[in-house]
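I have been asked to look over a protein record a colleague put together. Thanks in advance; the entry in question is below.
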Amino acid sequence: MALTFKALRQPPHLIHRQISLSFTWWPGGLGKVSTHAVVYARLITNGKDHGVHGFIVQLRSLDDHTPLPGITIGDIGMKFGNGAYNSIDNGFLMFDHFHIPRDQMLMRLSKVTREGKYVSSDVPKQLVYGIMVYVRQSIVSNASTALARAVCIATRYSAVRRQFGSHNGGIETQVIDYKTQQDRLFPLLASAYAFRFVGEWLKWLYTDVTQRLEASDFATLPEAHACTAGLKSMTTSATSDGIEECRKLCGGHGYLWCSGLPELFVVYVPACTYEGDNVVLQLQVARFLMKTVSQLSSGKVPSGTVAYMGRAKHLLQCSSGVQKAKDWLNPDMVLEAFEARALKMAVTCANNLNKFENQEQGFSELLADLVEAAIAHCQLIVVSK
């Protein structure tokens, strides 16, 4: 949530004060049940913005459960579908000049003294993204499961359902034998497997990053954050679209509740929004890519998922060696094609970005291209894993 807190010198027991109206929407349990929340907000002391920090906030009275002064809270109401998330009290929360005692700030990584002085630690601020990395890698794994369920339903239906194709009174053609059905269904089947593989790789990546953090090695955290953000975005978008496509592949029967597809769709589709809007997440990946491209000229060797950028000279000049259809069965040719595409899109964006005197203005003007470059990079990760 976008909150702003200001540190005051007096009185010391109310050192943090929320100075602008702020609003959040959707957290589960917030609508009716929750009495406390961990709120992430911008911290300002003595006129200086110290970025986002965590605060423990009491929301309701422990006596009668009514909201505290300065807080507006409630349930957001009915959501998409009859079941799905309607059993959860997703809520909204508004703060209006709400005061929080200083000692309710989470001060493991940084703190504010009673006099209002901000004291930072040597631990990188990116550490706060650690939990995001864990949650988003779990979402990628779940994408495989949801898409596999939908594809299983559509495949079985396509094998059982027969329609048209016979002109001599014989048995009608199985729907799955139609090439148009295969062209729509089989890529979704492949994607379900691909997302499973990349989900397993993300689990390894998270374990590796966690072990490095315990050893005070924060070098791989930015890449892990970019990977999980981008893959969360790409896989949830593909899965929600894939479930809907599976519904269409089942014809009118797919619209029936008993097919399992409508409920699967309404349960899954919020994944495109929670834990980060999918477009916004791809823009975070784009910033990571632009930073990596800018460092190529300095001689810094890229590693991890951007290691292919170390072969920039070759990839920017190469052309596909595919001569016939069976050449696409060569994994190396497929991988190089994805690498060349991802690199060329990223470099093009970086070159266009350099034409702007104001980098943020340039980033804003090139949003659509940056999102496409980020998606290409994420697709490369899936293919390579």
Remarks:
- The longest strand covers residues 48-58.
- The radius of gyration is 25 Å.
- The CA atoms of residues 45 and 142 lie 41 Å apart.
- The longest helix spans residues 179-214.
